[in-house]
Amino acid sequence: MAATGSAEAAEEEGDSDGDGVGFGVVGMVVNGWRSRVAADPQFPFKVLMEELVGVSAAVVGDMATRPNFGLNELDFVFSTLVVGSILNFILMYLLAPTLSSSSTLPSIFATCPNSHMFEPGPYGLLDRVGTLVYKGAVFALVGLGPGSSGPRFRTGWWRRGRGWTRTSRGPTRLPLRF
């Protein structure tokens, strides 16, 4: 009886094979992942390469600019790694094509191209600039989340570890926060 009830609920939600995930935000991300993989089977490979190459290059570059190759400041390096990984995944996820071509932009941008401003079609200059503004606002909000949580994460990590200990050199000072 329970199996039939769940199959009926899956059919009501439009998921006939019953493998949809319906756990709020996680379910939306998993369903979006499936849609992106169905549209581009190489999407997982592209995300993996972006994470491995892009984030590791950023972390190595960050470590190279610090004294002693960043080994004295591993909390900052770890913060760069976490924030960079999250940001790269979100941007790759948002840029990837999906199967549903019916995705439309909000009402003020309804006549603008859906994917990018250079999408072929009968779009005027104002429509293309509208797409640029909309996508720019989305990416700015995506960057604002990890960009503001990264320093908080780093400061919390720092306070948890060496921030509260006193050494022979005197009290340790917290890094600047804006």
Q: If you had to describe this structure to a student in words, what would you say it looks like?
A:
- This protein has five helices and no strands.
- Mean pLDDT is 75; it is low at 1-18 and 164-168.
- The longest helix has 39 residues, at 125-163.
- With 178 residues, it is mainly α.
- The protein is elongated, with a radius of gyration of 22 Å.
- The protein has helices at 2-12, 24-39, 43-64, 74-95, 125-163.
How would you summarize the topology of this molecule?
Layout: H1 2-12, H2 24-39, H3 43-64, H4 74-95, H5 125-163
Helix pairs in contact: 3-4, 4-5
Provide keyphrases for this structure.
178 residues, elongated, mainly alpha, 62% helix, single chain, 0% strand
Largest sheet: none
Distance between the termini: 58 Å
Give helix and strand order, one letter per element, not per position: HHHHH
User: What share of residues are in beta strands?
Assistant: under 5%
Helix content: 55-70%
- Unreliable spans are 1-18, 164-168
Q: What is Rg?
A: 22 Å
| Overall pLDDT level | 75
Shape: elongated
Oligomer: single chain
Supply the helix-strand structural class.
Answer: mainly alpha
Helical element count?
A: 5
Number of strands: 0
TL;DR?
The chain is built from 5 helices and no strands. The chain is mostly helical.
